[in-house]
From TrEMBL:
HAMAP family: Ac_CoA_synth
InterPro entries to which the protein is assigned, alphabetical: Ac_CoA_lig, ACAS_N, AMP-bd_C, AMP-bd_C_sf, AMP-binding_CS, AMP-dep_synth/lig_dom, ANL_N_sf
Lineage start: Bacteria, Bacillati, Actinomycetota, Actinomycetes, Mycobacteriales
Name the UniProt record assigns to this protein: Acetyl-coenzyme A synthetase
Family: Belongs to the ATP-dependent AMP-binding enzyme family.
Region (Disordered): 1-25
Length: 655
């Protein structure tokens, strides 16, 4: 690339005429939370830096030691400290005189809305905590939360945190069998759900799935149901309870008790390379410290001034860390929206931005690309001048989408923070700092102060500028996962065995440093696909397909997709004697995947093939299938048992 530096200080790519990097404006710098001295402070004394960040929180008992890594790879952060996470997210703001501040501007899909102040939130969370206690739940018990984006979902999470119950939020788009396996794995005693959920103007049942899941789940004692859509539900007396009765009648007074800094806060399941999802465990003090710290600096958040909106669902880690814990710990005023971005029409997000004066907008690249597809006339029809900062998460953002986001949504001036992190990391790890970093479209750029990341090769050699390899985290961090629920061996094996000698965390992402030393995340290097920012494992979809009686074998790959990042492409072999009924069969197979996992895991394309390409050792050659799926010429097929298999696959694909 040829680069020139222009008068205004921006560097331009002279071939494409686009700036290569966008320095922050003087006005932004002048008011920014972060300054470059943060990097220096963290470098001088990393643990002292984290101790200082931990003091953003209210500790019932101060910690004695910042980090105990003696039992690696299971860390203990802020050892000896005791805190209550919900007290930090709710009570503290009321105690400090901010009770009347709006915590949540809630916007329902059908157009209803609720304004919830910190005082309101305290009363609701206290009622829920009293009700959960009356149900016999005690610290250490697990609670499943299977709900759309209604305030009660957040209240339930905070009530769990308040009581030391460990929540397991299951995305409400998941099927009953996905819910069932998560309930079983965690042995949850309570499920909180809603009667139904609004989706594009229609009420879809939700409790039905819970009934199906819980039918034979031994651990469940109660199902607590929020009335949201008023659709009919089946009722099991003694087990099922209405939220408005149970929580509604409980006392709004509740005193929060302190828990150890390492008390488990939640389990969140994420796809791994095998069919069984991993229950990622997060604990309290370190997690809350890093979510609060990153929310403050990465989003340049100003309490009492900003109106923050993260468009994620609480079913994913982004919703946990950047709707619930980080923002509430910082006393934010935020928008929470229940529905889809095109309900009732494609103007919905921009109407919401105008209605509440949103200043910080954090979303996923797939949505930005969808907005691009709908056309800029839609955002252009609105006054988006309140927006001063944009964020991106979930997958690499392509430079075209990045520029469009900045120009169309950010008035050509809002800094964009491209935040790399994972369910496992708990909080943002690599990101520009607004007001400090000259941002670069497509690059997550720099590990945050206090975070250490490296790009290494197969031989554990650390690579410098220009290097291309695997992303590792070579120092522990406060919000790191503490294990996989019920399977510590898998924890060690998945994340710590690849670079066991060095003691580095293997993130599963490929990455490179450009010549300036900025970090670019290239995507997963394992069999995990990234569809619209959702992690879905190839083997999970394969096993859903094989669970159909007509399917003998299946191979699934992620193929590049303009809107969703990756799209799911499946190849299946039918069982002997099964007739290929064409479209009818394909529709049935897609429905099977929706039912087993979720509609988000439904393959974009399914091709029936006579055979699958395998190596001599019996491994399916996914690389070749990806080539087929993306329409590339086939490379080296010499390790295949039978290279002729490909002619047959190519023919089947053309049908
Ligand atoms: C927060 C979240 C994690 C995986 C991660 C990577 C991809 C996330 C990214 C990104 C490039 C970014 N990813 N953010 N890739 N740039 N800014 O998404 O958690 O659902 O666990 O997914 O997502 O591949 O390993 P999770």
């Amino acid at each position: 690339m040829t680069e020139t530096v222009t008068d205004d200080g921006t560097t331009r790519d002279t071939e494409s005429e686009h700036p290569v990097s966008y320095p922050p404006s003087g006005d932004f710098v002048a008011q920014a939370n972060a300054g470059s001295e943060l990097y220096q402070a963290a470098k001088n004394d990393r643990l002292a830096f984290w101790a200082e960040q931990a003091n953003r929180l209210h500790w019932h008992t101060p910690f004695e030691q910042v980090l105990d890594w003696s039992d690696a790879p299971v860390a203990k952060w802020f050892v000896g400290g005791e805190l209550n996470v919900a007290y930090n997210c709710v009570d503290r703001h009321v105690v400090e005189g901010r009770g009347d501040q709006v915590a949540i501007h809630w916007e329902g899909e059908p157009g209803d809305s609720r304004e919830i102040t910190y005082s309101d939130l305290l009363a609701e969370v206290s009622r829920a905590a009293n009700a959960f206690t009356d149900l016999g739940l005690v610290s250490g018990d697990r609670v499943a939360i299977y709900m759309p984006m209604v305030p009660e979902a957040i209240v339930s999470m905070l009530a769990c945190a308040r009581l030391g119950l460990t929540h397991s939020v299951v995305f409400a788009g998941f099927s009953s069998s996905a819910l069932r396996s998560r309930i079983d794995d965690a042995e949850a005693k309570l499920v909180v759900t809603t009667d139904g959920q609004w989706r594009r103007g229609k009420a879809a049942p939700l409790k039905d799935s819970v009934d199906e899941a819980v039918d034979s789940a031994a651990s469940i004692e109660h199902v607590l149901v929020v009335k949201r859509t008023d659709i009919d539900v089946q009722w099991t007396e003694g087990r099922d309870l209405w939220w408005h009765d149970t929580v509604g009648s409980a006392s709004p007074e509740h005193e929060a008790q302190a828990f150890d800094s390492e008390h488990p806060l939640f389990i969140l399941y994420t796809s791994g390379t095998t069919g069984k999802p991993k229950g990622i465990i997060h604990t309290s003090g370190g997690y809350l410290t890093q979510t609060a710290y990153t929310h403050h600096y990465v989003f340049d958040h100003k309490r009492g001034k900003d109106v923050y909106w993260c468009t994620a669902d609480i079913g994913w880690v982004t919703g946990h860390s950047y709707i619930v814990y980080g923002p509430l710990a910082n006393g934010a005023t935020q928008v929470v929206y229940e529905g889809t971005p095109n309900s009732p029409d494609e103007h919905r997000h921009w109407n919401i931005v105008e209605k509440y004066g949103v200043t910080i907008y954090y979303t996923a690249p797939t949505l930005v690309r969808t907005f691009m597809k709908w056309g800029r006339q839609i955002p252009d029809a609105h006054d988006l001048s309140s927006i001063r900062l944009l964020g991106s998460v979930g997958e690499p953002i392509n430079p075209e989408a990045w520029r469009w986001f900045r120009d169309v949504v950010g008035a050509g001036s809002a800094p964009i923070v491209d935040t790399w992190w994972q369910t496992e990391t708990g909080a943002i790890m690599v990101s520009p700092l607004p007001g400090v970093t000259a941002t670069k479209p497509g690059s997550a750029q720099t590990p945050l102060p206090g975070i250490s990341a490296a790009i290494v090769d197969d031989d554990a050699k650390m690579l410098g500028p220009g290097g291309n390899g695997y992303l590792v985290l070579d120092e522990p961090w406060p919000s790191m996962l503490r294990g996989i629920w019920g399977d510590m061996e898998r924890y060690k094996d998945t994340y710590w065995s690849r670079y066991a000698t060095e003691g580095w965390y293997f993130a599963g992402d490929g990455a490179r440093f450009d010549d300036d030393g900025d970090l670019w995340v290239l995507g997963r290097v394992d069999d995990v696909m990234n569809v619209s920012g959702h992690r879905i494992s190839t083997s999970e979809v394969e096993s859903a397909l094989v669970s159909h009686p007509g399917v003998a074998e299946a191979a699934v790959v992620g193929a590049a997709d303009e809107t969703t990042g990756q799209g799911i492409v499946a190849f299946v072999i039918l069982r002997e004697g099964i007739e290929n009924t064409g479209d009818a069969l394909i529709a049935e197979l897609k429905a099977q995947v929706s039912k087993e996992i979720s509609p988000i895991a439904k393959p974009r394309q399914i091709t029936v093939v006579p055979e699958l390409p395998k190596t001599r050792s019996g491994k399916i050659m996914r690389r070749l299938l990806r080539d087929v799926a993306e329409g590339r010429d086939l490379g080296d097929t010499s390790t295949l048992v039978d290279p002729a298999v490909f002619d047959a696959i190519a023919k089947a694909g053309q049908k």
